[in-house]
Amino acid sequence: MFKINKNKIPYHVGFIMDGNGRWAQKRLLPRLAGHKAGVEALKRVTSAARELGIKELSFFAFSTENWQRDKEEVDGIFDLIEKHLEENFEKFIEEKVTITTMGDISKLPQKLYRLLIDITEKTKHNTEFVVNIALNYGSRAEVVRACNKLIEKGKKNITLQDFASELYTASMKDPDLIIRTSGEQRLSNFMLFQSAYAELYFTKTYWPDFTKKHLVKAIKNYQSRDRRFGKIKQEKNK
């Protein structure tokens, strides 16, 4: 049986947390119950990732397209995120966790916006672990934002490094692995530039059911792949 290699743990893992609504509907529950269970899954996965040695996580929590959902569901999602952050604020500081965000958070409810500003400021010097939350985020909008920032600076002959420095993830490493739950097999406008060489892993498991066991399975699959980054595989001398 293939065992996990502690020396090949992905540094940065991104999660497209899909299937909360369908998880709830299959149980004849309101969609918000699925999102609540999804927050519990996020907590489980974050804890498991730290145990396994992963250093950075990115969670796709709310996209620029999610505003099209019913207001009750949108408000409920924001309330759940706010509650989770408030309840764990001191824990993040004690455990040296850095909280960062991706997306235009200025469009979020003011209380949540102020909480995010406060928590990112107070945890920015932590060094043990990074949790990056994508809120009102879309990768195409992020690319346009980066271009406009470079134009404002009068930049010409832009390099990849120049461009990457204007992304929300400027202080982070590119993801090694992107995991999407619920059976869908697409990135849905999530970290398109950063994921150029990320390994993609899709599972039919709904996000609320995702556990450490599923994460380990994804990492084993990741470790079985040959990451060449465009290079030719070097054959070992016989």
- As laid out across the biggest beta sheet, the strand order is 3-4-2-1-5-6
- Percent of residues in β-strands: 15-25%
Helix content: 40-55%
How many distinct beta strands?
Answer: 6
Low-pLDDT windows of residues: none
Strand-pairing-aware structural class:
alpha/beta
| Integer average pLDDT | 95
Distance N to C terminus: 26 Å
Which CATH top level class of the domain at 6-98 and 171-223 fits? Alpha Beta
Strand-and-helix sequence, N→C? EHHEHEHEHHEEH
Briefly note the CATH topology name of the domain at 6-98 and 171-223.
Answer: Undecaprenyl pyrophosphate synthetase
Explained architecture:
With 238 residues, the chain is of the alpha/beta class. The chain has 7 helices and 6 strands. It has a domain at 6-98 and 171-223: Decaprenyl diphosphate synthase-like (Undecaprenyl pyrophosphate synthetase, 3-Layer(aba) Sandwich), CATH 3.40.1180.10. A 6-stranded parallel sheet has the order 3-4-2-1-5-6, sandwiched between helices. β3, α4 (110-123) and β4 (129-137) form a beta-alpha-beta unit. The mean pLDDT is 95.
Topology record:
Layout: E1 12-16, H1 20-26, H2 31-52, E2 56-63, H3 71-94, E3 97-102, H4 110-123, E4 129-137, H5 139-152, H6 160-164, E5 177-180, E6 199-202, H7 212-223
Parallel strand pairs: 1-2, 1-5, 2-4, 3-4, 5-6
Helix pairs in contact: 1-2, 2-3, 3-4
